[in-house]
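Appendix C reproduces, verbatim, an entry submitted by the partner laboratory led by Prof. M.T., so that reviewers can inspect both the input and the predicted structure.
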Amino acid sequence: MAFGGWWARLSEARLRRRLYAAAALLLAVLAVVPQPYVARAKLVPQDSNSLGLGSMMSAIGGQLQGFAALLGGGRQPVDFYLAIARGAEVRDDVIERLKLVGPGGYASADKARLALIRDVDIHSLTGGIVEIEVETHSAARSEALTAAYLAAITERIRALGHERIERKRELVLGRFREASARVAEAEQALNAFRKRNNLAEPEAQLGSELSLRVGLQAQLQAKQVQLDTLAQFQGPDNPEQQALRAEIASLRAQIGRSTRPDVGAAGPNVAGLSDVHSQYLNLYRDYRFAQALYEIYARSSEQVTVESLASESVSDVQVIEAPRLDPDRKYNLPALALLALLALLAFFTEIYAPATGIRLWKDRG
């Protein structure tokens, strides 16, 4: 009965329009009061190339280019930094920095997290820029939240960068120690076999053609190891993998030509060797392979050292716009949306329905 009575009263155009006007006035006031304040900050995460390490690594050695990409030295996608900025660790860090839980704040950490999710928006802009946008009804609170988020994101990215470098250091130094031990064992075995069989130095004993063959085989094995390792981290369409496959194919073709029996100005090739020479060849090949791996990991360890020193003196995040308030006047969007909906409803009931003959309620006589 109560609903039917109100519906009957709404059929009076004067009462209906008064209600529209009162609701519109209330929503217009709510759209302005309380005034929202929006604060922003912009930052750009840096990579090793932006720090000037790319040219330095190229000067150290060409092999470092592949290992830099292999070990995660390339630039991370912006989605990676957005995931960090929106993560729970950053949110909890902001809560701790501003003491949002406790007297004068929220009753629990969960309520503080929900409030931050509602008030803070972190998104990406063109050029890999990450923007922090905070909207509250207090200018001081908006600026404080923006500054806290900027500090928390910077600290989190820096901490993750240090962890990445430490993992790279452990991996490279471990492999470097193994390569050092391997080249020492191969050299010791080669020298012992040479003394036991009264053989000259490998380059003189085996001839230039065989030395070339051994060198090619060592390069082939080293390139294959590098390709297999790189394939664990990158897809098959990576340009570096394609270049390595081309080099491997070229090395295999050169080795294949050397397997055909031939006698040249430098002596017989591999097909004419004796058993002793074959064993000498195998030991020499193992030594050259171990030596090639040692050189690769020596250069990689140098890269890790340089990156570690750079990470200690240079920030991993560049702030291109400090926290600041937007100068223009902001409005409460939910109230504006309800005001637009109310205007649409008034247009439908007061103008459109009568013009088209739609009867929304029974007319009172």
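Strands lie at 37-45, 120-125, 129-136, 263-264, 267-268, 317-325. Additional entries are available on request from the coordinating office.
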